[in-house]
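## Example record

The block below lists the input lines for one assembly entry, exactly as stored, with component labels intact.
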Amino acid sequence: MSDKTILTVSASPHTKSSGTVTGIMLDVIISLIPAAFAGVAVFGIRAALVIAVCIISCVLFEFLSRKIMKRSSSIGDLSAVVTGLLLAFNLPVGIPIWMCVVGSFVAIVIAKQMFGGIGHNFANPAITARIVLLVSFASAMTGFTAPAKNTVDALTTATPLAHLSGIDLSGDISAQMDMLLADGDLPKFFNMLFGVRAGCIGEVCSVALILGAIYLILRGIISIAIPGSYIATVAVFMLISSGFNVTFTVYELLGGGLLLGAFFMATDYSTSPITMKGKIVFGIGCGILTSVIRLFGSLPEGVSYSILLMNIAVPLIEKATAPKYFGFIKKKKEKKAKEGAA
Amino acid sequence: MGKLSPDAILKAIGKGKGGVAVAHNKLTAEKETVRIPIPETVTLPMLQHIGAPCTPTVKKGDYVGVGQIVGDSDKYVSAPIHASVSGKVIAVQDVKLANGKMAPAVTIESDGEMKLFEGIEAPRVTNKAELVKAIRESGLVGLGGAGFPTHVKLNTPEDKDIDTLIINAAECEPYITVDYRECLENSWNIMGGVYTLQEILGFKRVIIAVEDNKPQAIKILKDIADSDIDHGNIVRLMTLKSRYPQGAEKMMVLSATGRKVPAGGLPSDVGCVVMNVASTAFVSRYLKTGKPLTSRSVTVSGNCIKDPMNVRVPIGMEFQQIIDFCGGFTEEPYKILSGGPMMGTAVTGTDVPLLKSNNAILAFSKNAARIKPERECIRCGRCHAACPMSLIPTQIEKFAALKDAEMLSKLGTSVCMECGSCAYSCPAGKPLVQHMRLAKEVMRQAGVK
Ligand code: SF4
Ligand code: SF4
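Predicted structure tokens for the full assembly:
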């Protein structure tokens, strides 16, 4: 009878959803694959090399740092693969390979594991690494090759954003846009969509990024709150500052790292708010910073800096946007109830 | 885009009312309830409800009839215990309950006759006070699992304007089908209960709530709601999209009336009384016959049970005997639950008696239990998104570890109803309900509300 069988006693619930951390990371990897292929198609086989080096060194650093810190191995959760992919996506194709390794070290060891690993780091690892590389090796990091030239010594060209930042916003914007387009400085809209433009490996192909984003949203991995509010805020800023020039705005949205940043990096669980309100505030904050940097700063691009700054603000945002729990009673009443009880 | 309502947007971004979509697994839904043969003995613990335990009123050697009181308490929040078989009291001693606690209990050896106690007669009930008194004497507690004494629920404070009765037929826990079968097999009594309660307690409206995955029950309940007795069109049926924990009292009140029960409050604070559908049917039967609560339906299911079914069982029958009646185990069980998979209790053995509030006995093998290795929290926010109370379990877990009772109170820890939606959703396999209980304990020890 009963004493024959040993039953397990544990807290409810006694059934669990099928989702796991590894499963989530796998979904993120799947969502990034189209953009990876696009990057290789646009920039040639070297892009694949950069991606591979970043992934391998990220996983290796994750493994080694956990080992040295005497913590349980965490490479099985695949988060290091995601970091590697995202880091590679944020690098220009011509970057020296050793810099990829340095970047991976910064991302995994400094930004992630030193703070305790997944869930504990406050700064997005891939973004931190990109910024460290950008500050340390500015020319290598901004030496963007024109697409379809598949060698290292291909001509470097300016990204669409760099051209856009040359526009005089107080002048006739449509005329300036038309000229940039006619000169071939700005790629055609079709090329913007499919990534035939200068830029980082993973950011160029808007269609691939949007496909991946839709996949993540449908799978329930990310909510549209952060990317939605982020992109919408940038769009509003660009529309207003360009006197409602739609072409300019669309090129601003697609021309830099905004889609990659908004959908895949600003949504990083560890470094973004948990609550819906918090996510929206976070997204709007990223949007404002990005717009301000692009419009008024000396840099053409501001996605990474914006996300990093907002990462730092997450605890503040979470405090300010703490959700009201069910049946929350205002303080006055609570006090009264306390007095009544006392 | 412009046409989207804020609500639709919230849904689109994945933040509706919380809760989770769990697999229903209602294996026993289409099987008629079977009456179990009279057991040789029953053990009746003195604590089968929320509130004060009873003290035995019989002693070893006494003869008792079915429905005779064997334990009672002079406390108001309590419900008497009645003999569920006729026969001789063979022991009055402490026994182990399904939740691992010990409680005094009366064990009766059945004489196989099921002779009704002579004193039983239908109560005369014309007003609220008589109804409350009668229901207390019936020993009725919430049959949906919580076990709260029904008379306390019905004795709503006079200073509050109670206008709505909600009949809960949602049955959102997986596997359990006793309420569903009650609707199908016992609709007349449900109807009787609904209209009696409405008449005596003067509710302005009655809302019968059922999940949309039970079309047959919906049809029957709709007939009740549309019945000719209902002159004022007071009784209405509400179908809910099936989602766990739809049947939780506070969620039910919100869906039915749009009112939010305040933290620390009861449905009566917002003018509602919520009754389980089987309890409602019992009220009607009891008022007709005067036969107290001595048996109940229970779902015996799970992948280890040979012949899953719903059985009508005398209260106090041993789990193992009930399982044996259902063909026993097909494979070694890994976990046996009293109650549903989301909120039920894992028992240490099957030598425990069935209580009034037990609506299911479930047995699962190791594979079916779907165990996840526990990992570090990745801050994915799924626990918060799933929490119907809008709590942030991962944050509460952290402050519980720090023993910060003030902060726990600020975060609303006490409104947690331990529904398990958070732990169900967590990809890191965190035992969040356990952490929530711990957090409440931290608050209790610090004396913080
Ligand atoms: S168990 Fe508590 S914290 Fe978890 S989802 Fe349910 S109410 Fe929320
Ligand atoms: S669901 Fe689990 S992993 Fe996700 S935030 Fe909550 S506790 Fe952390």
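Confidence is low (pLDDT under 50) at residues 1-15 of chain B. The two ends of chain B are 44 Å apart (CA to CA).
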